[in-house]
Design brief:
alpha+beta, Beta-Lactamase, 2 domains, five-stranded antiparallel sheet, 11 helices, rod-shaped
Length: 280
């Protein structure tokens, strides 16, 4: 019988040693009954060296103090799930998720199972994402060029202060609204086709000059540049557009065109205008 039990224990040890997570069982006195080889990487102790030790000796005073409330709840029969930052024996910081599962027999808690999983890759990816979002929002807020982010249907997801100044409205007036409603009626005909070509991949960039309506009823000429940002990990595609005020330039072009066909002294059509008219 002892041989059978010892064989079963060895098979169990081999099984848990093959797992990357820290696996252990601690009795009601917080002394280790079994632990796997993953503890070597974290705490520099083999399963044999850990067996019989109090959990405080293994975790160290600082981590033990942090984990003690979870240990006490587990020994009261309450499952625990929490995250903890650990520094392994090599000085490397690891982000972990720990679960303590009470071992309850006939209503009595005999100890608890502990599983600690390394989630460093996930945490670092989340932090990188958060940093990227933070930098994006900072750049949006302080960019001198009007910028909006729209979804595939043209609805605004983000609008920066610069575009609000150009359109003389607030972000609340823009976000959640189809941005095409701000396009002047003279320019609405071609906008849908151009945006569709961006979404279907036939165009990777859009650049055009269009007239837009401001909140106060006046109009402004803007040069717009659109790029498509493909969604990652199943998220939807979005488009980022930047806008620059070209009203002064358009007015100058109109004036130059007028001067080209009128006499500067009389304001009447000049010879060139009459020739062009005759040709038509």
């Amino acid at each position: 019988m002892n041989t059978d039990a010892e064989g079963e224990t060895r098979r169990l040890q081999v099984l848990i040693d093959s797992l990357p997570a820290l696996i252990g069982y601690w009795d009601r006195d917080c002394r280790n009954v079994i632990a796997n080889a993953a503890y070597i990487d974290y705490f520099g102790m083999t399963p044999g060296e850990i067996r019989g030790r109090h959990i405080r000796e293994v975790l160290g005073e600082n981590v033990y103090a942090l984990n003690l409330p979870h240990i006490e709840r587990a020994l009261k029969g309450e499952e625990q799930l929490f995250e903890r930052t650990l520094v392994d024996q090599h000085g490397k910081t690891r982000y972990t998720q720990a679960s303590y599962i009470p071992d309850v027999v006939n209503g009595e808690v005999l100890g608890f199972y502990a599983q600690v999983t390394d989630v460093t890759a996930r945490v670092e990816a989340e932090r990188a994402r958060d940093d990227a979002l933070r930098l994006f929002h900072i750049s949006m807020e302080h960019a001198p060029i009007g910028t909006v982010v729209v979804d595939g249907s043209g609805v605004v997801l983000h609008a920066n202060p610069a575009i609000c100044r150009l359109l003389r409205c607030t972000a609340e007036d823009i976000v959640g609204v189809d941005f095409r409603r701000f396009v002047h009626p003279d320019n609405r005909d071609t906008g849908a086709e151009q945006f569709a070509s961006l979404l279907d991949g036939s165009a990777d960039h859009l650049s055009s000059e269009r007239k837009y309506l401001r909140a106060d009823g006046t109009s402004v000429w803007l040069q717009r540049d659109f790029v498509l940002v493909p969604g990652a990990h199943g998220s939807d595609d979005v488009a980022v557009a930047q806008f620059q005020d070209i009203t002064a330039r358009k007015a100058a072009e109109t004036e130059l065109a007028r001067l080209a066909v009128t006499d500067q002294l009389t304001g009447l059509y000049n010879r060139r205008a009459l020739v062009d008219c005759a040709k038509r």
